[in-house]
Amino acid sequence: MTFHSNDAWWWPFVFILVAGWLATDAWRYLGVYLGGRIRDDSEVLVLVRAIATALVAAVIGNLILFPSGELASTPVALRIEAEIAGFAAYQLARKTVVVGIIVAEAILLAGLYAL
């Protein structure tokens, strides 16, 4: 069974849904199964957290330095300033993620409005 094996209009959506579900849920179930057996301070869990944090940082860096769509038309300095302000707000608000996101978006929108 492949992506092009069926000509129905709904087939690509079903294929993507099933392929996406199989690719992610297997790891989720394995995580739930193993999560109860691993200590919070174990070296394996510290490694997993470090890799997850690095991946998120890489995605954010990619969005800031190599954006697509409407964000690509904004100046790099504005994107970096919004990111720095958001991170500073996150730290000052006792590591509250929502505050960092709101501040970064506000700086970005204000900069876009000023352009």
In words, what does this structure look like?
It is built from four helices and no strands. It is flat. Helix 3 runs antiparallel to helix 4. The chain folds into two domains: 1-37, no CATH class; 40-114, no CATH class. It is mostly helical. 72% of the residues lie in helices and 0% in strands. This is AzlD domain-containing protein. The chain crosses the membrane at residues 12-34, 46-66, 96-114.
What's the structural blueprint in terms of helices and strands?
Layout: H1 11-35, H2 43-65, H3 76-92, H4 97-114
Helix pairs in contact: 3-4
List keywords for this structure.
mainly alpha; 0% strand; membrane; 2 domains; 115 residues
Which ranges are low-confidence, i.e. pLDDT below 50, for 5 or more consecutive residues?
none
Helix content: over 70%
Count every beta strand, where a strand is a DSSP E run of 2 or more residues.
0
Structural class, please? mainly alpha
Shape: flat
| Total domain count | 2
Measure the end-to-end span: 51 Å
Q: Topology as H/E string? A: HHHH
In short:
This protein has 115 residues and is mainly α.
